[in-house]
Amino acid sequence: MCGIVCYVGKKQAKSILIGGLKQLEYRGYDSAGIAVQDGSNITCHRAVGRIVELEKKINGQEINGTLGIAHTRWATHGEPNERNAHPHTDPEQKVYLVHNGIIENYGLLKKKLQKEGHHFSSETDTEVLAHLIALNFDGSLNEAVRRTMSQVEGTFGLAVIHRDAEGEIVVARRGSPLIIGLSDEGNFAASDVSAMVRYTNQVVHLQDNELATLTLDDFAISTGQAKRIERTVETVEWHAEDADLDGFPHFMLKEIYEQPETVMNAMRGRLEPGEGVPKLGGITPVWDQLKTCRHLVMVACGTSYYAACVGRYIFEKLTDIDVEVELASEFRYRKLNFPPNTFIVALSQSGETADTLAAIREAKRKGARLLGIVNVVGSSISRETEAGIYNHAGPEIGVASTKIFTSQLAILTLMALLLGRHQNLSLTEGVEAIRALQALPAQIKKILSQANHIEAIAEKYYRCPNWLFLGRKFNFPIAMEGALKLKEVSYIHAEGYAAGEMKHGPIALISPQMPTVAILPKDDMYEKMVSNIQEIKSRRGPVVAITTEGNREICDLVDEVIEIPATLDFLNPILAVVPCQLLAYYCANLLCCDIDKPRNLAKSVTVE
Ligand code: F6R
Questions:
Q1: Averaged over 91-116, what is the pLDDT?
Q2: pLDDT digits over 262-274, tens only?
Q3: What's the CA-to-centroid distance between 301 and ligand 1, angstroms?
Q4: Cα distances (Å, whole numbers) of residue 430 to 389, 443, 492
């Protein structure tokens, strides 16, 4: 949510910052701005809309300076207009800053400042920070930011420059990610490594309530209490090419097509085919307690939550562990009472989702043990959990999550299999599961080879304003995920239901104008799904069936068939979701939607 990038170095800052903003645009894209310092002069430009609007605005203008800050916004306080776009400044235009997060006590602070004669030019919470930092400045920008941090409540990732602090950028964080990047050509800070991975893979993660001063050839981190912190420099494994479209028209499509590889990466080095037991080095630190755990709670939001819902069925199939799944945003308000040795598993692509972070903090307070399944290395959730498993899926840039979902399912399966093999699961079952897991990448490729067929189905139905997705057991969460994908990228109204619930309400909606996507691989739920389809067909509702390869009998009953290769019942969701992703993508494309940047959405939801 909102993207920050800043640079101080030997090169001209303008083009580095604009390039960085483009990589961050998926975090928020309703307005953008840039401030570049040249000696004691600071030039600031802001524009409503995408980064390209900002580029148009500054095109042809000479903006000299080798130090600058930039921002792409997802509005929280104040509508997306130029006045509310960042950078913000103080009345004397000495301080310029960009901010991610929400200043919760800004109302009180603003009133106090107004009484003292301050005039505000925006409706944002952020502007208060600029006024306070200017008031707190007495020669040291670092000190002014530190003092301001002690006056504000809420969350922030912050980058600040000052006319009288030449050659310095001060960055600070509380609850909103900020990463420092180091290179021979200068130093960076950004809310996401993708903004700087073109220049460096050497990074340092700023932690909550820390601030840092960046100069051309140095950085210094300290706490809110001015205690100096030494932190090791880490190497990130993401590459500049990961952030490119690589010939695809959209990141969503690119990421759908990456799934054979990302599912493979989730399993790479983690399978022991002969023993039928996966190896998960990331959970070794807690293994002694985890192997005796009988109660596990998964918490997550959105697509990660639906992965957790599939995970519950997989754990129930392969282990004797009781599994609960909770929406992170609700979990923290529940009366939590965990049996001893309860583990919480937080699933998150970004590792920064505010609700998921708040949920694990609450669970920790109540004595639970914490595990994470996270894609972004070094992210807040990965640091705040005791142990965990990384997806190693590379950056996910399309706002709609696709490749991380299947990667999360692969990892949940490995975890369940590992625990199951230490319980009642036999060697034969373990070996069979690993063989089936190894076959998945090729099977996903086979589904992707039907893309034209799926596009043709989308062409037939994309004008229908309402869709239903149905599944049972392992594939009930796939129905919900399929509906979520369709609505978020195409704005078509879609609902995902457990097929058994049909007759308790949704059947009232069935009509020739309302397509149903029925997910019915040949498993023990198949016959029940067929009965549901009969009910829909007798009301003349069109049905698109996602079923197991070679299932001919379904063709007589439904309007369209998409085949997925045969696998074990608990692995069907990894395959069945792929046609749902493609259907959503092609419908959105036919409706000319902005697929990678759907309206009102942003990647990495760092506010509650
Ligand atoms: C949907 C989507 C969101 C995220 C959710 C959680 O396509 O991307 O629903 O899944 O915001 O995000 P993470 O996984 O980063 O915690």
A1: 94
A2: 999 999 999 988 8
A3: 6
A4: 20, 20, 41
